[in-house]
Amino acid sequence: MSTSTTVETQGLPDTQPSDPNWWRQAAVYQIYPRSFSDADGNGVGDLRGIISRVPYLQDLGIDAVWISPFYPSALADGGYDVDDYRDIDPRIGTLADFDQLVETLHAAGIRLIVDIVPNHTSDRHEWFREALRSPRGSAARDRYIFRDGGGENGEQPPSDWVSIFGGGAWSRITEPDGSPGQWYLHHFAPEQPDLNWDNREVREDFLYTLRFWSDRGVDGFRVDVAHGLAKDLPEDLHSQAELDALPKDGSHPTWDRDDVHEIYREWRQVFDEYDPPRIAVAEAWVESDRRPLYASAEGLGQAFNFDLLEADFDASQFREIVSFNLDLAKTSGSSTTWVLSNHDVVRHATRYGLTESDPEEEKAGTNWLLAGGPQAQLDAEGGLRRARAATLFELALPGSAYLYQGEELGLHEVAEIPEDQRQDPTFFRNPGVSVGRDGCRVPLPWSAQGPSFGFGDGAAHLPQPEWFRDFSVETEQTDPESTLNLYREALRLRAQLHSGESLTWLETGDPDVLAFTRPNGWTCVTTFGTGSFDLATLGAAGSVLLSSRPVEQNVLPGESTAWIR
Ligand code: GLC
Fold this sequence. Notes:
There is one protein chain. By secondary structure, the protein is of the alpha/beta class. The chain contains 18 helices and 18 strands. The protein has helices spanning about 45-50, 55-60, 95-105, 125-135, 200-215, 240-245, 260-270, 290-295, 305-310, 315-330, 350, 360-365, 365-370, 375, 380-395, 425-430, 475, 485-495, and strands at about 25-30, 65, 110-115, 145, 170-175, 180-185, 220-225, 280, 300-305, 335-340, 400-405, 505, 515, 525, 535, 545, 555, 560-565. The strands form 4 sheets. An 8-stranded parallel beta sheet has the order 9-8-7-3-2-1-11-10. It has a 5-stranded antiparallel beta sheet with strand order 12-13-14-18-16. It has a 3-stranded antiparallel beta sheet with strand order 4-6-5, with no helix packed on it. Helix 5 runs parallel beside helix 7 and helix 15 (about 380-395) runs parallel beside helix 18. The protein is globular and about 80 Å long. The two termini are about 35 Å apart. The model is unreliable at about 1-10 (pLDDT under 50). Bound molecules: alpha-D-glucopyranose. Alpha-D-glucopyranose binds near residues 188, 224 and 283. InterPro entries: GH (IPR017853), GH13_cat_dom (IPR006047), O16G_dom_2 (IPR045857).
């Protein structure tokens, strides 16, 4: 394999034993473990696969990896349905493999963030099984949110709430004596019962889990659905319509409650038991002005900012988002985060290439996917051109950048997955409306040949299209203009150039062109329109260090970014 560079043995912990601020400007690479690299050939990516790719990660130049859930799971939601928070899915590996992964990453100077899923367990978790075996009102049921149903015989759900994945948010159980029984709340799939965070045992158990992984050497946690844990459900439940109309100001019964931060203050005490303190980043889809609460130093410390991910490739939107979020981060003392792609959304190369007429559908990408693929409505080349420009823009910003596996190859969303091979519950629970998130979770192409393009020795668990060959690591490695080499060079320069946590906008005189400079003179210029831009007009002295399209005679072509110094 062309990725077999030797791991250099400098790295953690000798070089940076306890830099408590390592995360503030980090480039973090998200691994979706079942689709990254499959060492044992069973079609599912695994920890040994990740270990074998550490040289690749090191060459890429990232500071940390975040690994999506690897816990035992029936995969009702891609692993976000956790059976046991302190073990590894046997298809993915063992705890011994995990220890070796930590060691190998640290030896390569790469930190490790694991995903923690506290809003819900899976329905196969021992607690939920115990709740099913135990009577109404028991301590075992109190770890979840059980209610009696309405109607004469309790046959109606306690409320008309709709789950995020579609369908009702309550499911009915069968009582131990075989009679139809109580209902439990699940904000996501029925296989993901919501925990009751008023229950002390639930809180204690998560503190134990945080220590379990921290003791094994993980550097931090990505906190799934961080805004969902605290709930305050009245006896008389609101209707869904009433719930939707309530203000999201910290007093909402189910989302983004102020008292969720009491939980994170306890977590912070655990993080601070370690040197350097363990870090955390909240996945909290909240109003932006509430984000600093999650990012506070007394709480999780950092929160995802999804604003760029939700924006169009548009100069004024990008500028406003950047200024707003840099100011916002100051209010919590944290650093901001930038995300363009992750395992839940249509890849950014594809989003920027959709040519649908309905802007709402274009954003979600759903229409393109339902319509059956690239030929119809995707400007694949244009999408990738804009994605490369957006990525260089992102990587020049102060704050940490979260990258998603495969974006460094310029991968597009995969539309052509047959229905009978789809896995995502959002597809099954919304027939005809959503194709779900499998299209960004297709296993990575490592080589131009082989049964799964080098992902493993056999077929991959989600089918890879033929065009993956052109985006394989092996193909891109030798092409100086490839997206892979662009990311590598960008990350290498970024590590050298990052300084301070601020930027200054430069006036470009063109509403489609943004330019900003960092305190050390590192300047980033992006043309969002198709028109080119003469860099000389900026008066920015220096030479072009890197650009997403070739710059000739100081002219930056349309839809591209250049770094100058
Ligand atoms: C988060 C995850 C998503 C998952 C959901 C439920 O949003 O990113 O993948 O389906 O939580 O756990």
